[in-house]
Amino acid sequence: MNDWIARDLKHNWHPYTQMKDCRRLPPILIEKARGLKLYGAGGRWYYDTISSWWCNVHGHNHPRIREAIRRQAASLDHVLFAGFTHRPAILLAEKLTALAPRRLTKLFFSDNGSTAVEVALKMSFQYWQNVGKPEKRRFVALDRGYHGDTVGAMSVSGASPFNERFAPLLFRTYKAPSPYCYRCPEGREPGNCVTECARPLEQLLKKRGREIAGIILEPLVMAAGGMIIYPPAYLDRVGKLAAKHGVHLILDEVATGFGRTGKMFACEHAHVQPDFICLSKGITSGALPLGATLTTERVYRAFYADYAQGKTFYHGHTYTANPIACAAALASLRVFEEENTLARVRGLLPQFRDGLERFRSLPIVGDVRQIGLIGAIELVKDRRTKEPFGARERVGLKIYREGLKRNLVLRPLGHIIYLFLPLCVQERELRFILDNTYAVVQAQACSKRLKIP
Asked: How far apart are CA 247 and CA 241, in angstroms?
């Protein structure tokens, strides 16, 4: 173990990590990054196939974003956003509201994905208080959803290892079945779906709609829940149910926003007009932390009153609308335009789809799903019963370690292998990533250690 790693482990506590594992598998020291590649000590490099936790959009160290950060840092590094403003925040708010669904004309900045969700939950809750409907104080979420690690965000997430230890801290929410097509809660087969999985949600709204403030879900891709990709028809139906029963539709686009699904926002695949959209991750192409919650004029007007009425939204963060982060976000949006990013991504999709389809031939692959440059391969012990690998078998860890040997950062979600590629990926890079990921999964399928039936 080199000196830098020893010093790291002396003090640093890494996220989502059993630190005892670091004795056998210490963290990798990364010294620089460019494009899709992370460069470690000693010259070893890796393709960042998961966009450094889904935030890197245009590749690491993009010159336009780097220059925007340098230029902004030279003039204004930070100023509080209460009673003050600055050009980068104004320009970014104008740009994001122009790109978002048409009703979303107001924007509240924060620091990250969890805080963007917390803002939406608190705004929705207080909205109903401000308009004289205090009974509307509960939220509905999907049972496999994930919305962050703060207490409010955990409360509207499904039960998982991410939050189960903290259950006593969480506020009570209603949970609806997830539209998990491979493991359909209604027993339907893929391709034979009429969104029947939305019926329990419909029944809940009929019964409890008067006490429900909002519904929160990730549009089309339930990321941390297993890269579950569901049809736009389900989102359309939820949007109609929310409107019919007078509850807010909150879309968490923290992972799906900024081109991940082939469109700027995933909700563009459907015909919905949300009341809130939560953004972060790719907003700065992963260069700096920033979050934003967009909402409607109607919501905004419910808070707009004389001070004495007590309708102010008392929420904020020290780094709200940090000028350097806003400048990075503006540069990222300019890169979308200058490099015609979304059109280029569409040109790669046939190659990506075909490469993923190969995995279906492997005996431990139960399902393959894809949208945009997101792909997921669900591994199972038994294709017939769809029995997944258990936590003790640590199939994900085996995949991760083998991936590193092939210059790939593959960080599975349990037994689900996924690719969440930066949008700047080139054809030859995509071919390398798909071929080597296939080789890694194929090797595991042949391994007796996994006891494949």
From this structure: 8
Task: Map out the domains of the chain with their CATH numbers.
Answer: 3-58+340-450 (3.90.1150.10), 66-338 (3.40.640.10)
User: Token pair of 403, please?
Assistant: 């991936």
Check if the beta carbon of residue 65 is closer than 8 Å to that of residue 58. yes
- 180 is an active site residue: no
Query: Quick one: CA torsion of 112, 115, 121, 126, rounded to 10 degrees?
Result: -130
- 77 to 110, 126, 152, 332: CA distances (angstroms): 16, 32, 30, 18
Using CA atoms, how far residue 96 sits from 4, 9, 88, 302, 329, in Å, is: 41, 40, 12, 22, 10
Residue of 48, 111, 252, 275 with catalytic role: 252
> Whole-angstrom Cα distance, residue 167 to residue 102?
37
pLDDT score for 452: 39
Query: What pLDDT digit, counting tens, does each position of 232-275 carry?
Result: 999 999 999 999 999 999 999 999 999 999 999 999 999 999 99
Separation of alpha carbons 282 and 122, rounded Å:
23
Residue 234 annotated as catalytic: no
CA distances from 258 to 82, 96, 158, 221 (A): 28, 10, 25, 13
Look up tokens 């209604």; give the residue. Answer: 186
pLDDT digits (tens, 9 = 90+) for 152-204: 999 999 988 889 999 999 999 999 999 999 999 888 877 677 788 999 999 99
Per-residue pLDDT band at 448 (split at 50, 70, 90): very low
Told to judge if 133 belongs to the known catalytic residues of this protein, a careful annotator would answer no
Classified as helix, coil or strand, 275 is: coil
The residue from 16, 306, 307, 314 that is catalytic is: 16
Q: What is the dihedral of CA 180, 182, 185, 187, to 10 degrees?
A: 150
Locus of tokens 């740009």: 95
Catalytic residue from among 46, 146, 230, 418: 146
Cβ 373 vs Cβ 419: under 8 Å:
yes
pLDDT, tens digit, 9 for 90 and up, residues 76-130 = 999 999 999 999 999 999 999 999 999 999 999 999 999 999 999 999 999 999 9
- Is 252 annotated as catalytic? yes
Q: How many residues does the chain have?
A: 453
Residue 1: what pLDDT? Answer: 56
Say what the pLDDT of residue 113 is. 98
386-416 burial by CB neighbour count: b if 16+ within 10 A, else e? eebbeeebbbbebbbebbbebbbbbbbbbbb
Catalytic residue among 281, 367, 398, 418: 281
